[in-house]
Amino acid sequence: MLKIVYQSYKKLPISLFKMGLIGLLVCFFFITKEYTDHLINEYNYPFSWFFVSSKIIINYLFWFILSPLVYALVRQVQNKSGLASNVIKVLFGVFLLTIAHRALVTKVNDVVYFLSTGYMKDFFGPNGIVGMVVGSFSSLIELIVLMALFFAIDYQKRYLKNQKELIAAQLTSLQMQLHPHFLFNTLHSISSMIDINPRKAQKMLTKMGTLMRTLLENDLEQMITIEREIDFIKDYLDLEQIRYADKMTIHYRISKEVIEIKIPNMILQPLVENAIKYGIVPAMNQGEIRIEIKKKKDESSLKEYINLSVSNTSEGNKTTIHEKGTGLGIQNIRKRLEGIYADGFLFESRFVNPKLYVAQISLPLNNL
Fold first, then answer.
1. H or E stretch including 364?
2. What is the DSSP letter of 276?
C-alpha cells in the first residue's frame, strides 16, 4: 500500500522537494501578508503567529497530500477520448476535491483552535456550514491554480521530450547522409586507381572493408570516444595513403587525457577528406596533414573545451580552398553541432598563413 502511494507521488510532474519548497515560499508569503494586514489595520488584539501560521500551513499541506489526485484530474483533462463523459468526470472530481480539501482543513483548524483556546467549534453548526461554503471558493481557486501548474509543467516536459526526439531524428538523418557521401567519394578514388594501378586498387578495397565494418559498428551511435574516432580516421588515411603515399605525410598530436571523451561520430572525417582534396591533391610537392586534439580553457569564462584541429599545407590559392566550405560534409558538420550544442560550440576554418589552412572545432566539455 505504501509503495503504491509512494509511486503516485513519484509520477507527479514536479519533484516532492520542489513542491515542498514552493509550498513553503507560498506559506511564507501569505503569513507575511496576514501580519502586514494586521499592522496596517491596527487591530486591538495581538497577532497570533502560531494560529495564523498553522492555519496557512495546514491549508497547503493538505494540497500537498492531495496532489496525486489533483494530477489524476489533470491527466483526465489531457484525455481526448469521450469528451462529454470526460468533462463530467473532471467537474465531478473538481467538486469532490474542493469539498474534501475544505472539510479536512476546516476540521484540523478547529482542532488547532481547540488546542489554543480550549473551545471546539460546532462543525455542522450554522457558522461551520458558512465557513465551509466560503472556504470552498478559496479551495476551488487553489485547486484550479494547482491543476494549471501541473498542466503547464507536464506540457513543457512533453514538449521538451518531443523536441529532443525530433532533434535526435534530425541528427540521425544528418549522420546517415555522411555514409553515402563518404562511400561515394571512396569508391570514386578506388575506381580511378583500377586502371592506373590494380594492385593498389585491390589494397584499397581491402582497407575499405575495415572502414565499412567500423561504420556498421558505430552506425547507431551519435557520440563516440575520441579514441574510436581517431581509429576510424587512421584507417581512412591508411586507405588514402595507398593512393597518395608519395605526396602525403600525416602527424597526430592527441593528448592522452582526452581519448575517452565523447564527440559526435564522424565529425573529423569530412575535415580530413577536404584536407586531402584541397591541400594534398593539387600540391606539386609532398604535403602534410596534422590532426591535433587537446583540452583548453577559456580564461574569461574559466570553462573547459575540447579543441579538435585538422590542418593541411597548401600550394593552391585561397579562393579554391575556401570553396570547400560549401560542401555537404562541412554543412553537415555545422548542422550536427548546432543540433547537439546549440550555440555552445565554435567551428571555423581559415588560412593561418598563405601555405597553411586550419579547420578547428571547439566543443564544451560539460556538454560531452
1. strand 356-364
2. I
Rounded to whole angstroms, how far apart are CA atoms 73 and 94? 8
> Residue 340 CA to chain centroid, in angstroms?
9
The single-letter code of the amino acid at 345 is F
Report the DSSP pairing between strands 287-297 and 248-254. parallel
User: How buried is 272 (Cβ within 10 angstroms: 0-12 exposed, 13-18 middle, 19+ buried)?
Assistant: buried
Q: 278 and 320 in contact (C-beta within 8 Å)?
A: yes
Environment class of residue 290 by beta-carbon count within 10 Å: exposed (0-12), middle (13-18) or buried (19+)? middle
- In this prediction the pTM is 0.56
- Report pLDDT digits (tens) over 167-223: 665 555 555 555 566 677 777 777 877 878 888 788 888 877 877 787 777 666 778
Please give the pLDDT value at position 10: 81
Contacts of 191 (CB under 8 A, 6+ apart): 201
Q: Please compute the mean of the pLDDT values over residues 297-314 and round it to a whole number.
A: 84
The helix or strand, by DSSP H or E, that contains position 252, with its residue range, turns out to be strand 248-254
Alpha helices (runs of H) in 290-358, residue ranges in sequence order: 318-322, 328-341
Supply the DSSP symbol for 360: E
Measured on CA atoms in the order 112, 115, 116, 120, is the torsion positive or negative?
A: positive
Cell numbers linked to 292: 591535433
Nearest in space to 190 (alpha carbons), one of 176, 209, 169: 209
User: Given a cut of 90, is residue 87 above it in pLDDT?
Assistant: no
Bridge partners, residue 305, by sequence: 296, 364
Cell matching residue 49? 503567529
- The DSSP string of 341-359 is HTTS-EEEEEEEETTEEEE
